[in-house]
């Protein structure tokens, strides 16, 4: 049986832990607000981009001159999985759910006889994937010192992916990230980025007859890499918001659990204390009676 | 004067959205002005100064590359980087000029070099505009 002093120390330790989780929850909440605002601010650009790209792509589609970023290499033997995760842990199932989705996809592709290569963005994903697919990981990008994600990071990753594509390293690229639905719901998502797939291909059909300056092909050649950067940027922003959301709810749970533990420990402590007082009283009384 | 809807977005934020009378856009193949009822077109941008003529006077915005789309709904500019002229940090422009100059020194003659030189010219022009307003 632990002594009263030991129990006091344990209660104090649990209280200290609770203070930390509470503080982390509050920090995550304020970061979440900022991350959410950033994700929302980026939305109009991504939407407009998709619209413009859709109408130009419809004009070029089918012709032999369609760029490879749009049409693909013609086969799908080698797949590249771009797995975006966080740099830090302690955010509930956030990292592992993205990794799990990527792992399932990788296993399915390998079972199909395809070749898989992995590009990790974020340290946590790399740590988890390293054990299983150490040899398949071709590169890791850490965003360690990055405080707020800017477009430059999205562009940097997109440029790497395009460079790999042009070297013929892979045929199909898929981006893995967590879509931010709400504080309690983050949905791990896989999005194919090369070759490009349009979500609403039918809608872009009868677009207005645009004049292009310079030619469609030239615009497209500039637009496609930009679009890739925008998609990656959006994924990073969604990820940042999701991470904070996941951390907030994980820390909320931790705070509640710590509260529960403190309650139980205090109860045991008080019981033990009372038992000891009673025991001492009995000793005194029986000693007095014996005289 | 008839007005139309103009939107200027960069990947990080929505910079401008509202009714305007005229917008002068630095297109890749030359500047062009957009008025209401402009024919639909899509074009790439070069680094330059975009001027918005609205009801409340004119506003100058530095854009570094991107796209412009004119449709029946109005004009949408998707800029790579966009910042109101008074907020632009001149050092970012001079840094880019320095970077381009060093790359030009290393590049051999060819279409790549031509591209870099054109880029440099655009940046120098933007820089000249910025210094010009600073002296006023």
Uncertain segments of chain A of ≥5 residues (pLDDT<50)? Answer: 201-206
> Largest interface, and how many residues on either side?
A-B, 29 and 24 residues
CATH topology of the largest domain in chain B: ATP Synthase, domain 1
Mind telling me which CATH architecture of chain A this is? 3-Layer(aba) Sandwich
- Terminal Cα span of chain A: 33 Å
Q: Which outline of chain B best applies?
A: globular
Gap between N and C termini of chain B, in Å? 30 Å
Main beta sheet strand tally, sense and closure of chain A: 5 strands, mixed
CATH superfamily of the largest domain in chain B: F0F1 ATP synthase delta/epsilon subunit, N-terminal
Shape type of chain A: elongated
> How many domains of chain B?
2
Q: What does this protein look like?
A:
The complex is a heterodimer of chains A (291) and B (136). Chain A is of the alpha/beta class and 291 residues long. Chain A has a single domain (22-199, 213-250), classed as ATP synthase, F1 complex, gamma subunit (Pyruvate Kinase, Chain: A, domain 1), CATH 3.40.1380. Helix content of chain A is 62%, strand content 14%. Chain A has six helices and six strands. Chain A has helices at 4-60, 68-71, 94-111, 123-133, 151-166, 216-290, and strands spanning 78-84, 115-121, 137-141, 172-180, 186-194, 211-213. The longest helix of chain A is centred in the last third of the chain and has 75 residues, at 216-290. With 136 residues, chain B is of the alpha+beta class. Chain B has two domains: 4-85, ATP Synthase, domain 1 (Sandwich); 89-135. In chain B, the strands form two sheets. Chain B has a five-stranded mixed β-sheet, with no helix packed on it. In chain B, strands 4-3-6-7-10 form a five-stranded antiparallel β-sheet. The radius of gyration of chain B is 16 Å and the shape is globular. The A-B interface holds A 38, 41-42, 44-46, 48-49, 52, 55-56, 150-151, 154, 208-214, 218-219, 222-223, 226, 229-230, 233 and B 7, 9-14, 27-29, 39-44, 67, 69, 71-72, 76, 78, 80-81. Strand 6 of chain A pairs parallel with strand 5 of chain B.
């Amino acid at each position: 049986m632990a002594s009263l002093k030991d129990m006091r120390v344990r209660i104090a330790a649990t209280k200290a832990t609770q203070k930390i989780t509470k503080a982390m929850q509050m920090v995550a909440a304020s970061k979440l607000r900022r991350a959410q605002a950033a994700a929302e601010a980026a939305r109009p650009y991504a939407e407009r981009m998709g619209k413009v790209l859709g109408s130009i792509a419809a004009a070029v589609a089918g012709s032999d001159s369609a760029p490879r970023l749009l049409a693909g290499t013609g086969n799908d033997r080698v797949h590249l999985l771009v797995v975006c995760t966080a740099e830090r842990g302690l955010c509930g199932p956030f990292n592992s759910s993205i990794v799990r989705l990527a792992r399932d996809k990788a296993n399915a592709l390998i079972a199909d006889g395809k070749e898989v290569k992995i590009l990790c963005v974020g340290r946590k994903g790399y740590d988890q994937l390293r054990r299983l697919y150490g040899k398949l990981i071709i590169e890791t990008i850490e965003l360690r010192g990055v405080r707020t994600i800017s477009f430059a990071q999205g562009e940097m990753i997109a440029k790497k992916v395009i460079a790999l594509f042009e070297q013929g390293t892979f045929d199909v690229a898929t981006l893995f990230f967590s879509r931010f639905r709400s504080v309690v719901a983050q949905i791990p998502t896989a999005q194919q980025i090369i070759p490009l797939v349009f979500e609403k291909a039918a809608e872009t059909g009868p677009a207005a007859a645009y004049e292009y300056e310079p030619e469609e092909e030239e615009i497209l050649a500039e637009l496609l890499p930009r679009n890739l950067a925008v998609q990656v940027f959006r994924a990073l922003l969604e990820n940042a918001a999701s991470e904070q959301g996941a951390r907030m709810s994980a820390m909320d749970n931790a705070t509640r659990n710590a509260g529960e533990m403190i309650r139980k420990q205090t109860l045991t402590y008080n019981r033990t204390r009372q038992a000891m007082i009673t025991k001492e009283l009995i000793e005194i009384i029986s000693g007095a009676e014996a005289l | 004067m008839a007005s139309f809807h103009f939107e200027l977005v960069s990947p990080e934020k929505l910079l401008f959205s509202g009714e305007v009378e005229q917008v002068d856009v630095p297109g890749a193949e030359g500047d062009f002005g957009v008025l209401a009822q402009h024919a639909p077109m899509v074009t790439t941008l070069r680094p330059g100064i975009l001027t918005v003529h609205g009801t409340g006077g004119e506003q100058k915005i530095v854009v570094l590359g991107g796209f412009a789309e004119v449709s029946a709904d109005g004009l949408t500019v998707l800029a790579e980087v966009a910042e109101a002229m008074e907020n632009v940090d001149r050092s970012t422009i001079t840094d880019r000029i320095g970077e381009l100059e060093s790359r030009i020194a290393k590049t051999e003659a060819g279409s790549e070099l031509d591209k870099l030189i054109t880029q440099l010219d655009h940046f120098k022009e933007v820089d000249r505009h910025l210094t010009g307003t600073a002296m006023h």
